[in-house]
Amino acid sequence: MKGTLRNNVSLISVVVLFLWIKTYIIYQTSFNIEIENTLQAFILFINPLSFIMLIIGISMFFRSDKGRNRYLMFIGFLLTFLLYANVVFYRFFNDFITMPLLFQTSNFADLGNSVTEEFKWYDVFYFADLVVLAVILKVKPKFVNFHTVPKMHRRAYFLAAAAMFFLNLGLSEIERPQLLTRTFDREMLVKNIGTFNYHIYDVILQSKSSAQRALADGSELADIENYSDANYAKPNDQLFGVAKGKNLIVVSVESTQEFVINNKVNGQEITPFMNQFAKESLYFNNFYHQTGQGKTSDAEFLIENSLYPLSRGAVFFTHSGNEFNSMAERLHENGYYSNAMHANNKSFWNRDIMYKSLGYERFYEVGDYDVNEDNSVNWGMKDIPFFEQSVQHMKEMPKPFYSKLLTLTNHHPFYYDEEDKFIDEFTSKSGTLNRYFVTVRYTDEALKKFIGDLKASGLYENSVIVLYGDHYGISENHNEAMGQYLGKEVTPFVSTQLQKVPFMIHIPGVKGRVIDKVGGQVDVRPTLLHLLGIQTKDDLELGQDLLSEDHEDLAVFRDGRFVTKDYVYADNKCWDKATEQPTDKNYCVPYMEKASTELNYSDRIIYGDLLRFYDPDSAKK
Ligand code: GP9
Ligand code: MN
User: Fold this and answer.
1) What CATH number does domain 221-613 carry, 3.30.70.260, 3.90.1300.10, 3.40.720.10, 3.40.250.10?
2) What pLDDT digit, counting tens, does each position of 43-54 carry?
3) Would you say the CB of residue 31 lies under 6 angstroms from ligand 1?
4) Span 302-345, pLDDT tens digits
5) Is 296 one of the annotated active-site residues of the chain?
6) Which residue is catalytic, options 98, 183, 271, 296?
7) Which residues are CB-neighbours of 512 under 8 A, at least 6 positions away?
8) Is there an atom of ligand 1 within 6 Å of 295 CB?
């Protein structure tokens, strides 16, 4: 018997090999997974293995051959079915299956109608190996060893599966730091941890949020409603409705921080256009981003809902099935055609799903743009052609419309083409910071052309145009270089002030001025809706209209830092804005509670999906 053990392959290896190879073939033939380097190619190759080894390994514990065979056939079929379901889904949606999506009945209805068209005759080949396996189990050919596996071998096998898993995870972490905590994109997840592990991860995310949701009930809302009522800042009489009926164009300006505005590098202006445009707009020079790990998507979330994003993960991913009262929805109710425009993979940040929850009527994604190698750099389509083509889409839209546009060129690592370089790089040890100025300058040029196109198309005079920076571009890893640029040390105080992002609202017929109120992205929703003449007093918002006389100077960051009129709370210290030095902590104490209450209420709304219990008609305000 010992001899036979050496000369033939174990049943386990056969099954594992079959499933592994099949999964890999499916990756290559049925999904469009972009591979940029050898490490990514290697990760893709090994990523199905750990899970398949684990689940097939369980068959070693079966006492009877019959039981084991049935188990193997069952798992083989289950995994194949899962893969095949993804293949069909991908043909239709160009995306991988997610739990919330399966539960979103409206999506499913879409799928149901034409799903039959997505089946192809040659799909039977996806199941071919199962037939071979069934034959092997039946015929028991000599080259396969059907004997029970000794305990020692079993241990070694599971150790190897675990080692494979950690090797896979380790390599993915090198390739994509924070992959699991930030959950950027399904394609990236599948590419790195593999389709099976991805589904497990997705189920964990889903069950966590379902459990929290199931435990919540409407009674939790009372405190939050009271808070939101008391916090409501009534609109400014002169400005309420000044832009009634106008289109709303909101541009999320990628990674743009406020320090570049009205500032120079090598003696040249960094944002000549925005500096000018700010003069013609309501310009908020004490406006902060409040994003967490969800970056751009967190900024979108804040602006749409006047709620904070989460402290961990991206709410666009974790709670896309929630009920929201978004700005897009409110505008749609008021006759607006609401849409988002972004020439990137539509599933990035789970936008394709989340935008539906937020009530956007249309998402102009990469497929709606003519993107090619010549008009792309860094993360994808360049801002200039993106804006050009977006204006073409706008011309065709029903009016009035609400369009949200997301730029992309000024994104880390800030790579650019020589032809798009309008100013010189900075000189410091940080290539990232050095290049940043060049790409910010490019985006500024793109904005200039965009406004020019809007004027030429006649849309300008009928539109409110809003620009906001989504989040920082230069992280604290570049403090030394940043200190060199600013000519001072980047203390926790300075670092907090660097979280200011530009925010400007251009309204036809309204003269530009600087508004120095302290606020953040959470305040955008009421500010804009009031300008368009739409009341928000019945909405559950945590932000305040920045133009209201009652607006309180406060910006709470997602990590607990905050800024008031005179103080900055950071690094557990209270900093005096005038001296830029720590002062008596008592000055910050009155705001500490408000800051944590706001974040806490926001989390409770999201984790409990409390807006499903919210009835605006019963709101008192
Ligand atoms: C990608 C864009 C950039 O679609 O939103 O993402 P970011 O990394 O800035 O969140
Ligand atoms: Mn961004």
Assistant:
1) 3.40.720.10
2) 999 999 999 999
3) no
4) 999 999 999 877 899 889 989 999 999 999 999 999 999 999 98
5) yes
6) 296
7) 278, 279, 280, 281, 282, 283, 506
8) yes
